Amino acid sequence: MSAPSTAPRKGPTPWLATWQRLMEGVGPEAAPGLRRAILGLLAAAILQGLALASIVPVFTALFSRRDLTDGLVWLAVFTALTVAASVLRWRAQGFDYDGQMSAATNRLRLRLGAQLRRMPLETLQESRTGELNSMVLNSVDETLQTTLTILNLIFIAVVTPFATGIALFAVDWRMALAFLAVFPAILPLYRWRRPAMGRGKRILAQAHQEANADVLEYAQGLPVLRAARQAGSKAERLAKTFEKLEAIQAYGHRKGEKPNILVASVVELGLVLVLALGAGLVAFGALDLAALAGLLVIVARLSEPLSTFILYTAMVELIESALDRIAALMRIEPLPQDDPAEVPDRFDIEFDAVTFRYAQAPDPALKGISLRLPARSLTALVGPSGSGKTTLTKLLMRQSDPQEGAIRIGGVDLRQIPADRLAGLISVVFQDVYLFNDTVAANIRMARPDATEAELRAAAEAAHCLEFIERLPKGWDTPLGDIGGRLSGGERQRISIARALLKDAPIVILDEPTAALDTESELSVQRAIDALVRDKTVLVIAHRLSTVAGADRLLVLEEGRLTAQGRHAELLACPGRYRRMWEAQMRAKDWHLVPAGTSAH
Ligand SMILES: Nc1ncnc2c1ncn2[C@@H]1O[C@H](COP(=O)(O)OP(=O)(O)OP(=O)(O)O)[C@@H](O)[C@H]1O
């Protein structure tokens, strides 16, 4: 499984693929409307081109032939075409200002949010928060909010002059040919420069996304960095990220500006040549002076958009690269669910010859693990750091699937249990508690939104939360975003236990929640845990062996293998890793701080 690929692509995306991704992006609800809007803009650009071409007959009728009726007819044609173009454009842009595009943007954000919930957690954890944030907000906005405006500008710059050129055949084929000859002159230039410009834009988008992630991580890590007096050194890293961004911006400007100036010059020159040809034809009496005057108006009107069109195509690159990133994220498949779907009604747990390797790791983190946890038993996982304890619990929560073997709850393979039902079977209490920016009540209730007030209160009481919740400035309604940082580690931990109690799942995973607490908080948290684990199948990751010596069973993991299992006394009786760990921890317990000036003995 790999993280969403955000690497810059080499060449420009073919237009058709971009079109399809755009339609997928706005979703089936808005796609027909957007298609109509784009076609409307295209038609408006064509009508505008025809309107411009009709200026020539207006001029010749009025100024050369002095035929007022004919002149007025052509003027009416010009006006009708211009009005029709404006109406079409107005209606097409209505897609934006009626709020349909904003609604589509919102739906896309929600779909991305749903995808984040669906995708395998292992993949999600490999993505950096800042990059995801930048994708869900900026990429989506870049893509959808600007699409119609940019397309409109491109159509005015390219389609309108092209339509004018074609229509000019009806007036004077030589002028029409000369006019259309400007296009073949710019196209090779455009095709030659576009890939480099596209690359520039894509690298820039990628650099923005990385900088976003760096800034977020820096801000989040500041307390740790300051404590470690590393705020400066990490700031240097951030400065380097910004330097890279600056270099890429400069590169992008170089790659973008040069072709712009070049195309603008070619366009200006080409149009001057068209006028020179017209002047020559007039001099030889082959073209009407009034027609040349009309041509002059057309050239003046079109030279500006035509010479800047390459600028707008660069914006298309940004849209394409955002669509690429969104498509890459949406392509990530959730872990498949095998048929027939089944929900266990017993809660014993079985690992059957499970081998698991992380996508980025050379060696398996778990090797041939077979074990059985009876229902309503308390099992502790012990072993040195990196031995695979956390990995084993992650597999039980199905954050990833093992490459070999199977994991079963109540005899049902995890792969057959629907994801939301599996989530309902397991409560987890981690060492680090994540509190959401919401009230205390909402933070606990999130485990079971339909819980009654009485159930909420009972869970908080059993988790020993009531006394501190009632002391908070607004009690249950205190927003934790404001004061989350002021709660002690033990209090935060008890809120997370209250959550788990309210959820009342039959299986409980504890990642030794008391490891980081002082003795007093540990006691109250321990009492809360006792309430939580009653009658549950419990798996505890234990760092301090003294806390789990009373477990029904201990599993000793070493380098991804299960090397011993049994009760504390049984494991202590035979020489091995457990006895060594126990002895080392007992020695460490006797360790105490010695006041300066006295010597330890
Ligand atoms: N996302 C990952 N990608 C690659 N390797 C990983 C990943 N997560 C963990 N590992 C590796 O898998 C092995 C087992 O890690 P795990 O976190 O399960 O150990 P642990 O026993 O829980 O350690 P600790 O007690 O320090 O928390 C380690 O070698 C670790 O480096």
The CATH topology of the largest domain is what? ABC transporter transmembrane region fold
**Main pleated sheet:** 6 strands, mixed
Tally of separate domains: 2
CATH architecture of the largest domain: Up-down Bundle
Q: What are the secondary-structure elements, in order, as H or E?
A: HHHHHHHHHHEEEHEEHEHHHHHEHEEEHH
Proportion in β-strands:
5-15%
CATH superfamily of the largest domain: ABC transporter type 1, transmembrane domain
**Uncertain regions spanning at least 5 consecutive residues:** 1-11, 597-601
Q: Strand order of the main beta sheet, please?
A: 6-7-8-3-9-10
Organism: Rhodovulum visakhapatnamense
GO molecular function, one term: ATP binding
Transmembrane segments: 38-59, 71-90, 150-169, 175-192, 261-284
Membrane topology: Multi-pass membrane protein
SSE map:
Elements: H1 15-53, H2 55-64, H3 68-97, H4 100-118, H5 121-126, H6 129-168, H7 173-180, H8 182-227, H9 231-283, H10 289-331, E1 349-356, E2 366-373, E3 378-382, H11 389-396, E4 404-409, E5 412-413, H12 419-425, E6 426-429, H13 440-445, H14 453-462, H15 466-471, H16 480-483, H17 489-503, E7 507-511, H18 519-533, E8 537-541, E9 553-558, E10 561-566, H19 568-573, H20 577-590
Parallel strand pairs: 3-8, 3-9, 6-7, 7-8
Antiparallel strand pairs: 1-2, 1-4, 4-5, 9-10
Helix pairs in contact: 1-3, 1-4, 1-6, 1-10, 2-3, 2-10, 3-6, 4-6, 6-7, 6-8, 6-10, 8-9, 8-10, 9-10, 14-17, 17-18
The chain binds adenosine-5'-triphosphate (ATP).
